[in-house]
Amino acid sequence: MALKLSFEKLQMAKNYLMKQGRDLEQELFRFHFENGSPQSFISVMSKYQGDDGGFRNMGEGNSNYTNAMDTSMAFQYLSEIGATSNDEIVQKAMKYMINTYDHDLKCWHPRHNEKISGWHDNPDSELVGYLYEYRELVPNDFLEAVTETAMSSIRNPQKPYHEYYFLEALCILRLAVRIDEPLKTEILNRIKNDIYQIIETNQDKWATTYSAKPFFFAHSPDSPLFETIKEHVIRSLENEIITQDKEGDFILNWTVQDEESGKIWSSIWTMDALRALSHHNMIAIQTRI
Domains in the chain, please, with CATH? Predict the structure, then answer.
């Protein structure tokens, strides 16, 4: 039987988030554990949206300017809480994604004043996934064009994979779970075939080396990759329980640039671990706290 996070440890994590975490993760905790409403979360998230519809200060790029990386992170949360195409925050963000796409270079440029030479799966493939999720707001010809570019990249990966390829693979996975068949199965099969080249299975590295913890690729038993890496997913979540900091946060496995970045990412990762533990029924008491 898998190890479970105790009620006391859950309370520690909650206290950490409420005292030191961001308002976003605080509201996300309420959504998952205290019957918080999607609209309450959207109200908080709207503070991170710029006039152009993009997002800033999500943890990537210059906190003063909207950018594609932060927008992809914002959509992870919006999708999670069930935001729909009827929500203004989504409508504005879709317009941003359509308006900022570079048709000449066939890509989104990831950060403010960071122009790249072409498509990068991180974050471009992930952004295409959200275009599919909210496709009623997206012109068909645009969706077809970016899908073609995404599939060309996915079908022709550069091997051997570089050290941080898992970040690209996560973006590709977020596209896979949203795109239509038969492309969905094609992408998932490609990830499954390569998954042991992507995830880190050495438990000694999970808390010390920036790497792909297996649960990143299977946040719930419903994940299409879960059965393929089940043993490693459970072990990596048990390791999160074991290595939880005395302050209540779930520790980062890399060194942050400054104190503010540390606060943001500790907040993000703590909520990420709690969400995965909850989805896998690895929290001892999952009632209102």
Answer: 7-279 (1.50.10)
